[in-house]
Inverse folding.
C-alpha cells in the first residue's frame, strides 16, 4: 500500500526480443527521450527490474557515463517470457520511485533501446576451416588455431558463426583477433576477403556470398592488423568491423544451419615451404620466403546496435494497463506514461458485496512489515527490557507524528469520515481496525465493480518503505496463549513485615488480581488510591459487619508507598509476591487464608508462536461458531533469559561499558537492541575510513515451510537498531544498518539410493537437510547459521546428502547460480552475503539399475 514516498505504484513496461541477447559481456542501454525543460532527469527517477521467470529482479544501473535520459545495465540478465496485459514477451519494468514536482517531469517523446557487447567479447558459436581438400575441420577455440591451416592456399576458407550477435540486422559487428605469437609475424602477399551469405535481390538468382570487408596486404588498413605484413602491427590485437547486412540469410553448411561469415584467401600466399637444393655436392636448405601461416590465440566477437524502438510499450496507472506502443514510436509526439492520480492522496479501497449490519465490525490486517515478527514482547508476554520499553515509546511517538491515515465511506455524494479504532496505527503493524458501519453507506462503482466501498486514505506524512499487506480477514478475534487460574489461596498473613507468598503456577502474565481479607472497611481516602470496585463484602450474611475483601495494587517499588498504601510487588518470573514493612507499604492484617489470587494468568513464551493453521479446535462449544483456525502465526511469545545466556552476556557487558568501538561491540549491542535479532555481522569497509556497515538477521520460524523463507528484518527494526547504536558509537563514525543480501542458488542432485524406503520420504528429507545446512540461523559447520562471506562448495553439499539415511552415494550434484543463470562448481559470497536455497531437484537411481 501507498508505494513510494507518497504515491501508489506506477509502472512503465518495455518489451523487445533483443533483450534475450543481454549476456555476460553485454550492456543494455535504454533511452527515454524527454522534452528539454530544465527539470529532473526522468531516467534517474525510476527503479528498474526484469522478469526472470519467478519474480521481478531488481537491476542496478551500470557505473558508466551516460547521457541525459539514458540508463545502462550490465549483463547477464536471464529474461524469461511473461504476459503483461495479455501480451507475451521479454519484459523490462520501470517503477516511478520519486515523486515528480510537476507532471512535465515525467513526459516522454520516444523510447528506444540498444544492446552492445563490451569487455572480452563473445567466442564464436562455431568455427570451421575449409582447406584445399574441401573438408570442414572444426576448430577448438580453447587453444591456438590456424584459421587457414598450416599451409594456406588460395581459397582456403574460415567459417564463423555467432548466433547471439548476428541475429540483428544493421548492427555493428567487430571480430577481434590476437596472434598466438606477435613476434613471429606472418608475411602475407595476399588479401583475405570477408563475406556473408545474402540474397542477390532476385528470385531466380538465389543467394550469394557478398563481400563485407577486406584484409589486404601492405599498406594494411587499421581494421586488419592481424594480417598485416608489418611485424610491429602484429604485436597488437587486430579488429575487422562491419555492419550486419540486412539480407544476411540462414545457410546449411556441413549439416548445420546458421548465419555464416566466410573469410577466404583470395590470392597470394603466406610464404612457401623451404626446399633442399644440390650445390657443389652439398644439399642446402633454402627458405627465401619462409612459410608463416597465421596462428590465432584469441578470436572474439563484439557487437553494438543503433538505438531502436522497442516492440511494445505499456503503462500501468490506477490499476489499469494501457498500450502506448504507437505513440511511443512517433517522434515529436509527447505523451505521459505516469498519469497523475485521481485521488488527492494515496488510498486503499475495500469493497463489500452488501452493506454490513449496523453492529461493530472488525477487520484484521496481516502486514508483512512487522515490528517483532513474532518475538517482541506484548502486553501478554514476559517481562520487557528497558530497551524494548523505550522502543515501544519511540514507536508510538512516530505513529502519532509521522503520518495520518483517514478512513472514509461513500454516502452517495461524497466521501464522509468514518470513526475507527485502529490497532495497526496507520498500517505500521498487524492489528484490528474496528468500526460501526453507518446507515447512510451507499454502493458505488469503483474499479469497474459495484460495491459498498470503504477507503483508508493517507492524509499526511509518508513511509520510509511502503507497508505490504499479506491478507485482510473478517470474523476474527484475538486469541492468547495463556490459562486463567481463579481463586487460589496464596496463604495466611501473620502480621509480620515484608511477608512473601508464592503462586502455585508460573511464570505469570500481567493483569493479576490479588485480594486481602480485612476486618474493617478501608477509609474513604484510602479507597481513593484503589480501583472503584476494589472493595467487596465478605459474603451475603456479612453485610452487618465491617469485614471485607480488598483488592490491593501492584507497584514496581515501595519507594512512594506510605504506611497505609495497599501495595505489593510481584516477580512475574518466579511468581513471588511481597508486601510492605508497615512504613513503606501496608502489612496485610493477620488472618487465616487471607491472601487470595482471585485471578491470574500463566502461559506465554515462544511455544505460543505457532504456525498458521495449527489451532483448529475449541476448548468448549460457543453459540453460532462452526469452526476455528488461526490464519496467521502466533507472535509475541518470548522466553526468559537462561542462565547460560546471562553468563555469555555478562563479560561483554563489563568489557564494552555500553559503548560501540570494536566490531564485536557493534555486533553484541545490536543483539541487545532488539530481541527480534538473531545474528549480526560488522562488515569491514576499508575504502571509507570511519564508515561502519552492520548486517543484521532477524529471528524466524525454524520449522516447516518457514525454513524456506528469507529472513529479512523490517525497516522499522533497522531504524531502531541504528538509532540505538548511534547513541553509543564514537563521534564522527558513519553507521549503516542493512539487511543481509542473499545469493540465490538451486541444486540438482542425482543420488544412488538403497532399494528399501519410499522415494517421497527420501526426497523430502534431503531437501530439509540441504535447506537446514544453508539456513542463515541453523546452517554452517556449527549449526548456528551460515557464516557471512563463506563460499558454497559442491563437496560440502555432497557430504550433507550422503549423510541422509537411505542414500548410498551421490552420482552427480549441480549448483545453479540463479543471479547469472549458470552452473558453477562453487559460489563465492561477499562479506554481507548469505546463500539462499531456491529450488532442490532430486533424481534417484537404485543400485539395481546401475550397470
Amino acid at each position: 500500500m501507498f508505494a513510494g514516498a507518497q504515491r501508489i505504484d506506477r509502472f512503465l513496461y518495455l518489451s523487445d526480443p533483443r533483450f534475450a541477447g543481454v549476456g555476460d559481456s553485454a550492456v543494455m542501454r535504454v533511452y527515454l527521450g524527454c522534452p528539454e525543460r530544465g527539470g529532473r532527469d526522468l531516467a534517474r527517477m525510476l527503479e528498474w527490474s526484469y522478469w526472470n521467470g519467478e519474480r521481478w529482479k531488481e537491476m542496478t544501473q551500470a557505473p558508466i557515463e551516460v547521457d541525459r535520459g539514458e540508463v545502462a545495465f550490465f549483463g547477464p540478465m536471464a529474461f524469461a517470457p511473461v504476459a503483461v496485459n495479455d501480451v507475451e514477451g521479454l519484459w523490462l519494468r520501470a517503477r516511478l520511485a520519486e515523486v515528480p514536482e510537476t507532471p512535465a517531469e515525467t513526459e516522454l517523446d520516444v523510447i528506444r533501446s540498444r544492446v552492445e557487447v563490451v569487455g572480452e567479447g563473445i567466442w564464436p558459436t562455431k568455427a570451421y576451416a575449409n582447406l584445399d581438400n574441401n573438408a570442414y575441420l572444426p576448430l577448438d577455440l580453447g587453444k591456438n588455431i590456424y584459421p587457414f591451416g598450416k599451409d594456406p592456399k588460395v581459397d582456403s576458407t574460415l567459417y564463423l558463426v555467432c548466433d547471439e550477435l548476428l541475429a540483428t540486422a544493421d548492427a555493428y559487428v567487430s571480430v577481434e583477433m590476437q596472434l598466438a605469437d606477435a613476434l613471429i609475424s606472418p608475411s602475407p602477399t595476399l588479401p583475405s576477403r570477408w563475406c556473408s551469405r545474402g540474397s542477390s535481390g532476385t528470385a531466380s538468382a538465389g543467394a550469394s556470398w557478398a563481400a563485407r570487408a577486406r584484409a589486404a596486404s601492405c599498406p594494411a588498413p587499421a581494421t586488419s592488423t592481424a594480417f598485416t605484413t608489418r611485424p610491429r602491427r602484429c604485436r597488437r590485437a587486430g579488429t575487422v568491423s562491419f555492419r550486419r547486412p540486412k539480407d544476411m540469410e540462414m545457410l546449411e553448411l556441413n549439416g548445420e544451419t546458421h548465419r555464416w561469415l566466410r573469410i577466404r584467401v583470395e590470392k597470394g600466399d603466406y610464404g612457401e615451404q623451404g626446399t633442399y637444393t644440390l650445390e657443389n655436392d652439398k644439399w642446402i636448405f633454402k627458405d627465401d620466403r619462409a612459410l608463416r601461416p597465421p596462428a590465432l590465440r584469441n578470436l572474439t566477437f563484439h557487437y553494438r546496435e543503433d538505438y531502436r524502438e522497442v516492440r511494445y510499450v505499456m503503462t500501468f496507472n490506477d490499476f489499469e494497463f494501457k498500450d502506448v506502443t504507437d505513440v511511443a514510436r512517433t517522434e515529436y509526439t509527447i505523451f505521459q506514461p505516469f498519469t497523475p492520480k485521481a485521488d488527492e492522496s494515496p488510498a486503499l479501497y475495500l469493497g463489500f458485496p452488501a452493506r454490513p449490519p449496523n453492529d461493530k465490525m472488525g477487520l484484521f490486517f496481516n502486514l508483512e512489515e512487522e515490528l517483532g515478527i513474532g518475538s517482541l514482547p506484548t502486553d501478554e508476554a514476559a517481562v520487557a527490557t528497558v530497551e524494548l520499553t523505550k522502543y515501544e515509546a519511540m514507536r508510538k511517538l512516530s505513529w502519532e507524528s509521522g503520518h495520518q491515515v483517514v478512513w472514509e465511506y461513500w454516502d452517495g455524494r461524497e466521501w464522509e469520515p468514518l470513526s475507527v479504532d485502529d490497532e495497526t496505527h496507520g498500517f505500521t503493524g498487524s492489528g484490528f481496525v474496528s468500526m460501526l458501519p453507518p446507515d447512510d453507506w451507499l454502493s458505488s462503482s469503483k474499479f469497474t465493480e459495484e460495491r459498498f466501498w470503504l477507503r483508508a486514505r493517507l492524509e499526511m506524512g509518508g513511509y520510509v518503505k511502503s507497508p505490504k499487506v499479506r491478507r485482510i480477514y473478517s470474523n476474527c478475534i484475538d486469541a492468547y496463549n495463556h490459562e486463567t487460574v481463579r481463586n487460589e489461596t496464596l496463604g495466611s498473613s501473620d502480621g509480620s513485615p515484608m511477608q512473601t507468598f508464592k503462586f502455585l503456577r508460573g511464570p505469570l502474565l500481567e493483569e493479576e488480581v490479588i485480594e486481602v481479607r480485612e476486618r474493617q472497611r478501608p477509609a474513604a481516602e484510602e479507597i481513593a488510591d484503589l480501583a472503584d470496585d476494589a472493595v467487596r463484602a465478605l459474603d451475603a450474611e456479612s453485610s452487618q459487619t465491617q469485614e471485607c475483601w480488598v483488592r490491593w495494587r501492584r507497584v514496581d517499588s515501595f519507594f512512594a508507598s506510605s504506611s497505609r498504601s495497599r501495595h505489593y510487588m510481584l516477580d512475574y518470573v518466579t511468581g513471588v509476591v511481597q508486601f510492605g514493612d508497615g512504613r513503606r507499604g501496608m502489612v496485610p492484617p493477620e488472618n487465616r487464608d487471607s491472601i487470595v489470587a482471585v485471578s491470574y494468568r500463566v502461559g506465554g513464551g515462544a511455544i505460543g508462536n505457532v504456525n498458521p493453521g495449527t489451532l483448529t479446535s475449541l476448548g468448549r462449544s460457543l453459540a453460532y461458531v462452526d469452526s476455528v483456525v488461526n490464519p496467521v502465526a502466533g507472535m509475541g511469545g518470548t522466553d526468559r533469559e537462561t542462565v547460560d545466556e546471562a553468563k555469555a552476556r555478562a563479560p561483554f557487558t563489563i568489557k564494552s561499558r555500553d559503548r560501540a568501538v570494536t566490531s564485536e561491540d557493534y555486533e553484541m549491542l545490536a543483539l541487545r537492541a532488539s530481541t527480534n535479532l538473531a545474528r549480526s555481522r560488522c562488515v569491514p569497509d576499508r575504502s571509507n575510513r570511519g564508515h561502519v556497515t552492520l548486517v543484521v538477521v532477524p529471528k524466524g520460524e525454524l520449522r516447516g515451510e518457514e525454513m524456506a523463507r528469507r529472513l529479512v528484518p523490517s525497516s522499522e527494526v533497522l531504524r531502531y537498531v541504528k538509532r540505538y547504536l548511534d547513541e553509543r558509537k564514537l563521534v564522527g563514525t558513519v553507521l549503516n544498518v542493512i539487511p543481509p543480501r542473499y545469493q540465490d542458488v538451486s541444486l540438482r542432485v542425482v543420488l544412488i539410493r538403497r532399494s528399501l524406503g519410499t522415494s517421497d520420504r527420501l526426497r523430502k528429507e534431503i531437501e530439509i537437510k540441504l535447506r537446514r545446512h544453508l539456513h542463515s540461523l541453523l546452517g554452517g559447520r556449527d549449526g548456528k547459521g551460515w557464516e557471512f562471506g563463506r563460499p558454497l562448495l559442491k563437496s560440502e553439499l555432497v557430504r550433507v546428502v550422503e549423510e541422509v539415511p537411505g542414500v548410498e552415494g551421490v552420482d552427480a550434484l549441480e549448483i545453479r547460480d540463479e543471479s547469472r543463470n549458470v552452473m558453477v562448481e562453487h559460489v563465492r559470497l561477499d562479506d554481507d552475503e548469505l546463500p539462499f536455497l531456491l529450488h532442490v531437484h532430486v533424481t534417484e537411481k537404485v543400485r539395481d539399475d546401475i550397470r
Q: What stands out?
A: The chain has a mean pLDDT of 79. The helical segments are 325-329, 386-402, 524-527, 643-656, 663-673, 715-726, 759-773, 794-802. The two ends are 59 Å apart (CA to CA).
